[in-house]
Amino acid sequence: MSGYPPRNGEGDRPAQPGGGGASPHTPPSPDTPHTETYAETPLHRPALPDGPPPPAGEDTHSPEAIEAARKSFAGRIEFLKSAPALEHLPAPIVPEVAFAGRSNVGKSSLINALTNRKTLARTSVTPGRTQELNFFDVGDPLTFRLVDMPGYGFAKAPKDMVRKWRYLVNDFLRGRVVLKRALVLIDARHGIKDVDREILEMLDKAAVGYRMVLTKADKIKASELAEVTERTIAEARKRPAAHPEIIATSSEKGMGIPELRAAVLEAIG
I need a labelling partner for 63 at 20 to 30 A (CA). Which of 19, 27, 170, 178 fits? Predict the structure, then answer.
């Protein structure tokens, strides 16, 4: 069952022919080897200024960029549909930015804070429950979409569910030509775990540009936040598809939310 049921009596909008830029795909049985069917897409990374990256925590977005982002997220934002498989993806007609993270990293809360809506992304008391790609339309007329990817790293998830998740996410990343950036959420209290590195490897291989975002930054001391930020920056510098700058956020306190909005607009270009 979808983690985002139709609202106000409306069902999902029908998928348009050619949606997702890929042919329908059914996850193979456990005994059938999985074969990739997509060519790698170009690396989606904006041009960065010359010189070394700025100090950790320094905001590189201008006041004008932050204000433009605030206005964009103050307009129409609506849940579009959930896609349990590639054939259910909406038509690739606008740029998309995807959110990835462990099942308890606070992804839904961050999306709600980003969009200034309390219940746009549905939170669940059961980590790892949502195993679908959830799409949100932004702008009137439609300007871009946000994609809430399934949470990963839930220890109690059945193996077949984990395998299905990997196939869905991997094929989406490789075949979604309108995907401009992935935002990988990292719990600031714990830093990057091995399970996070698995999704980073997947993004690197798919040639999808991504940016790491620390969540729950208000839950630790400033000195601890500085340390985890430095470690995360060091990890980003090792990876070919990673943006070198890190944004520390707090859904509860609003910390880093204006900068994250500006980063989303920067990504869709």
Answer: 178
Residues paired with residue 183 on neighbouring β-strands, in sequence order: 99, 211
pLDDT 10s digits, 142-152: 999 999 998 88
Backbone torsions φ then ψ of 165, nearest 5 degrees? -60, -45
- The whole-angstrom separation of Cα 2 and Cα 46 is 34
> What pTM was computed for the model?
0.77
In a domain, 70, yes or no: yes
Q: Does residue 214 belong to any structural domain of this protein?
A: yes
Token look-up 């999704």 returns 199
Per-residue pLDDT tens for 6-63? 444 344 444 443 444 444 444 444 444 443 333 333 333 333 334 444 444 444 789 9
Specify the CATH number for the domain of residue 203: 3.40.50.300
Give a yes or no: residue 27 inside a domain.
no
Number of helices followed by number of strands (H, E) in the chain: 6, 7
